[in-house]
Amino acid sequence: MNKHHESTGPADEQQITLRGPAELADALPYLMGFYPNDSVVMVALHGGRGRFGGRLRLGIPQSPQEWPSTAEQLAECLVKGSERRGERPEAIVIFLCQDPADGEAPGQVMERLRPLAQRLRTACGALDVPVLEALCISGGRYWSYCCPDARCCPAEGNSLSLPGTSVMAAAATYAGIQVRGSLREMEGRLMPLKTPTVAEQAQALDSAGAALVPRILGEEGPEEVARETLVLARALMKRLREAPTTAPSAADIRDDSLISHDEAAAVILGLQDRETRDKAAAEWMEGSEAESALRLWRALSRRCVGPYGEHAAAPLTLAGWVSWSTGDEPGARVALGLALRADPEYTFAQLLHQACNEGLDPETLRRCLRGERSERTGRGSHRSERSAGPGPVRPPARRRKKAQPGAVRPGTAVARRRAREARADGRGGTKSGRRP
Hints:
With 436 residues, this protein is an alpha+beta fold. The protein has 18 helices and 8 strands.
């Protein structure tokens, strides 16, 4: 077994030392805030004691032909992103997490992914950053790709610790850190519905779109549509807030039942307007209304069915913003990652994810939004809603400079797509796109 120590602190005042692959494997969900599924996870280590730094997650490419370019993109994304934050990694730890397919044994998963692990190790080495450990986690077991000693790393792998029994679990519990289930479960709360009502929701979106265009182009204009969108959103939030609380899965089902197809369609289409979306972001980002707003944005994300999948970028981004604003960084990254999957060029999601990944305090953006909200309210008595509306939401200028450079070299179309997805899941930075 490789002899090394990694120090990490679930809280600033507490540090623990992880020794070897077993404790590293157990620490992964606490580092990410969830159990990653079908994922490559790369974590930067800094200093002589191996302090955990930036981390990056990407879904494992299905085609092995994508692995070489993906490995290069991921390695550069993590290293360059760390350098932009002022600290080049001393080393990197790699995790490959994938459950066995039907008829496949965990050991077969490990062997199937071995070439990917080697590609990642080579890509990191080419940047003069060694891979200290590379682990495969599958079917409740783990393997080290770096340790050749069968006495501690046997061919059949080692069993993972029982949840909640490790030193990392104890430290995380003491620090108040929670693991929010698996990535698959977290994404499932935001993905389009697969119930028999999908066709009805798609039809409602078709009808709402057909009615909306002539209204916007007619005498009413976009101002009245924006006003109605926000009024309806507030009414739906009140309806959700007054419903009794239950377990998350039951709560999602109940929330879906409280919102009609027509209501969901009206708000989803209304949020496609940039100014309307920005007003929603400013109005319900904190305080007592934040929880019901997050529930509404989740429910609307689930209603973006069929050909309306790209429309989910707006409610997903709002869900990510509320999550980040209220202290749920793992939830924010998942929602913003899905927003960029729905529309890779959605600039609002890119900027928020950039700021979240780089550790920017959300209070900086909240102050900006509060100011715009106050200015809009103050001007509302003598100006139209259109003139009072805010421009696109942006982080402060000092941070915006970091959103412009590309973190990843140009490459094949597949490699560029993988790099965008990696930036949506990790801490490697994000390019600005064209769409608001």
